[in-house]
Structure formats: C-alpha cells, structure tokens
Amino acid sequence: MPKSKTDELTRETVQAQETPVEETVDNLPDTLEAEDKKPVSRRARKKAAQEAAASEELVNIKPNPTSAKAISKNVRVTPRKARLVIDLVRGKGVDEALGILQNVNKAASVPVAKTIQSAAANATNNCGMDRSALYIAEIYANDGLKMKRYLPRAKGRASHLVKRTCHITCVVKMR
User: Fold this and answer.
1) DSSP per residue, 12-62
2) How many whole angstroms separate alpha carbon 51 and alpha carbon 55?
3) Please, which residues have CB within 8 angstroms of residue 111's CB and are 6 or more apart in sequence?
C-alpha cells in the first residue's frame, strides 16, 4: 500500500514511462491494407507514409529567390567609419562597387568588399543568378559588440576606451 500521495504519483509516472508510445506508427494511413486486404506491418505503413510525404514535397518546389544576402559579423571597424564607405557603393552594380572599393583609401573598404563578394557568390552559386546583372539593393552597417577597455592615466587614474565593432549586411538583386 502506498504511504502517501507522492508514492502514488511516482508509481503512476514509472508505469507511464514503461509503456511504449507508438502513436505515430499506429496513426499512419493504411494505404497498403486497402489494396491487398492483408494485415500490413507497422514498418510497411511507415514507409508508405514517408513515400506519400516525399511525393508531396516534390509538388511544393519553391521558385528561385530574387535576392541573395551576406552578413559579416563583428568586423573590427567602427560602424560610423564603415557607413562612410558603404554610402559610396549603395545602389551600384557589384563589379562597379568592387572597383570603387579598390581605390578607396579607408580601412573599412576591405571588409565591405569581402561582404559584397560573398553576397555575389551566394547569388550565383545558391540562387543561379547572373553575376553581371547583380546590383547592391541594400547595404548597411549595424553596431556589433563593444569591447570595453581601460587606459592608464596620470596620478593612478584610468579612463574608459570603447573598441567598437559592426555587422555589415549586403543584399544583392538582379536588374
């Protein structure tokens, strides 16, 4: 006899854990049973359900996307300095933008160029777009992590130093 309510609850939970739950296999459609009029194993019903799901997936093929995206995270350039470079190439073609960035003498031009190249590669390889027809539809730099450091100052004091990073996002589309 159980001594308390907790003993009853633990016995019920142990019994519930010991009984196997096969609801997913039992609820599968009996497509093979209707055709053959023979009892069909659970494995056969499960396989038939998987084949039915696979045929539905073939019907629901998604069309090619119209844009491709690339994100560079925690780039060690301040967002304000990255935005100065980004504003030069927004709305331009990919090849033209990369040509502009090669001639810009800013530290942010290298990570911005890498992000644009990555977005163009995603568009050609993953989406099947033509590289010569790509242009930069969206490009922006958001704040990333801020590393907080201290600088030693005179008379034993310390001043704060914030080393900023940014996330550069580039979306390319076809013209």
Assistant:
1) HHHHHHHS---HHHHTS--HHHHHH-S---HHHHHHHHHHHHHHHHHHSPP
2) 6
3) 72, 75, 77, 82, 168
Task: Output the DSSP codes for 54-112.
Answer: HHHHHHSPPPPPSEEEEEEEEESS-HHHHHHHHHHHTTSBHHHHHHHHHT---TTHHHH
The model carries a pTM of 0.65
At 127 the three-state DSSP class reads: coil
Q: Which two tokens stand for residue 136?
A: 């930069």
d(CA 94, CA 131): 8
Measured distance CA(71)–CA(115) in Å, rounded: 7
Tokens of 173: 């589309």
Asked whether the CA dihedral 144, 148, 154, 157 is positive or negative, the reply is positive
pLDDT digits (tens, 9 = 90+) for 122-163: 999 998 999 999 999 999 999 999 999 999 999 999 999 999
